[in-house]
Amino acid sequence: MEMLEELEKFLKGAKKVIVCGIGNDTRGDDALGVLIAENLKKKVRNPKVTILNCGEMPESYAGRIIREMPSHVMFIDAVHFNGKPGDLIFADPEGTLGETYSTHKLPLKLLVGYLKQNLRAKFILIGIQPKQIGLFQEMSPEVRKSMEVLEEALSLLLSSIGVENP
Hints:
By secondary structure, the protein is an alpha/beta fold.
C-alpha cells in the first residue's frame, strides 16, 4: 500500500510527533483535517504523539508546537492540487502546495518557515483533494472514504511510535 509506505518513510526515527488537523467543519470536505484530528485523539494513546485540532488557524498553535519540541510535524488539510476528489498527496509544506488555496489565513509555507527557525523537525503536508467546500455542505463520499483510510493508517502508525524501539 503506497500511502502506508509514504507515512512509514516519513515517520522513520520519530521520537515525538505532532499532528495538526486543519480545516473548517462547516464547509463540507474542508472538515477532513479537523475530523481526522478529533478521531485520532480518541484512538491514539501514545505519549510521544500530540494531536491538535488547529481549525482554520494553525499559526495559533506555533508556540505549542515549538514547546513540544517534536521530531516530526504532520499537517492534514483539504488541498486543491488538481487531483480527483479524494486523491491523496504528500508534499513539502514549504513547497508550492503550502501556499495554495486553503481556508486558513496564513499560508502554511510561512508557518513552517517560522517553525523551522525554532525546531529541528521533519515536516509533511498530507492533502486530500476536496470536491465541495461550500458552507454547510456534507462531506463528499470520495473524500470521506479517503479520510477513513488515512485515519486508519495514521492510527496504526502513530500508536506504535516509540513502542518497537527500546
